Amino acid sequence: MNSDIDQDNRATRIFPMISHSYKKWYFRLLSGVIFGLLTWLLVEILLNLRYRYFEMFLSPLNYLYAAILGILIHEMVFRSGKLLDKNHSWDRGPGKRLLIQMLTSIMIAFFWVSVVRLSVNYLVFHNKLIIFSDEVMILLLVVTLIFFFHLSELGFFLNERYRKSLAEVERFRKENAEYQFEMLKLQLNPHFLFNSLNTLSSLVHDDAAKAAEFIRRLSDVYRYVLDNRNKELVSLREEMEFIHSFSFLQALRFQGMIDFHFDVSERSLNRKIAPMTMQLLIENAVKHNVASRKLPLKINIFSGEEDLIITNNLQPKEEQPGTGVGLKNITSRYAFLTERKVEIIREDHLFKVIIPLI
């Protein structure tokens, strides 16, 4: 396990280092020289195997010429890659990018190897004997080396994407564990249970029927938390049934200090939502706002086209501002579930949270 982590850490350091180095001209210059020299060395090996009397390393000038040509080809391939990054980046489709990059590189190689090199050989070195099959072999060799270069680029990209996906999964696991811990605390929250029992105690003597209803709703709340605390998504219909029970308990506890209003369309009830999202938002509103009979806290939950909107009037308590952990937790959770973002809007007298329905 530790060995795998160490290898991944080494890859994390090596791959960005190579990518960053390619931005430096002298690194590309050295790479071009190596590319040119290696190409001509392989050409001479192939010619030596093909022609019985061919001798290697007879002309150092050929290696100098190959190094210069290698620099020019390498730089043009690099520049073409930078241009393709704007409209055909690796992120938009690795296969398509590799194909376009290869076609571009083939045209660059053809220009320098088949046009420029042959022109120089004919005009400067006065080489009248040009064997077509040898030139095709050289061109194919250059294209093959460039192909492996682009494959290595693809490998770096896929490795980077893999590492990022692992980091995202690990981040979600951590946040999910924190979320489950928060749910567990809410489930066993002694304050919530204590307040509920106090409310029930007063109801038992005054209104037995309402006390029985209170017990049933309290049972529904705890059953829902137990059944769904490990789920990623539940239907909005289930969540609304839970919220109706939860808001009933809160309304009885605060006795006219909190007003709940629900307006959720039937179509929206079939969509999905992360469990206990609305409970956290209601708890957040109650925790940070004043609620009294003169200044009741008004909590509205209604559906939009593709969203669920939760609002409350702002009546901040005179206390230090909250840490924002609850809202951050909801935002992070939805970032993993959908590409649409949770919107948090604070106006002069209104606090609004827009939750995407899935």
Please characterize this protein's 3D structure.
There is one protein chain. This protein is an alpha+beta fold. It is built from ten helices and seven strands. The strands form two sheets. The chain has a five-stranded mixed sheet, with helices on one face. β6 and β7 (350-356) form a beta hairpin. Residues 1-18 have low confidence and may be disordered.
Give a brief description.
The protein is α+β, with helices and mostly antiparallel strands.
Low-confidence stretches at least 5 residues in length (pLDDT < 50)? 1-18
The major pleated sheet works out as: 5 strands, mixed
Average pLDDT level = 78
Main-sheet strand order equals: 2-4-5-7-6
Strand content: 5-15%
| Helix vs. strand class | alpha+beta
**What is the number of independent domains?**
2
Outline type: rod-shaped
Provide the helix percentage: 55-70%
Number of strands: 7
What is the CA-CA span between the terminal residues?
A: 37 Å
- SSE succession: HHHHHHHEHEEHEEHEE
Report the C-alpha radius of gyration, rounded.
Answer: 34 Å
- Work out the helix count: 10
Question: How are the elements arranged and paired?
Answer:
Elements: H1 2-21, H2 25-50, H3 60-87, H4 94-123, H5 132-187, H6 190-206, H7 208-228, E1 234-235, H8 236-254, E2 258-263, E3 272-273, H9 277-288, E4 297-303, E5 307-313, H10 325-337, E6 343-346, E7 350-356
Parallel strand pairs: 2-4
Antiparallel strand pairs: 1-3, 4-5, 5-7, 6-7
Helix pairs in contact: 1-5, 2-3, 2-5, 3-4, 4-5, 5-10, 6-7, 7-8
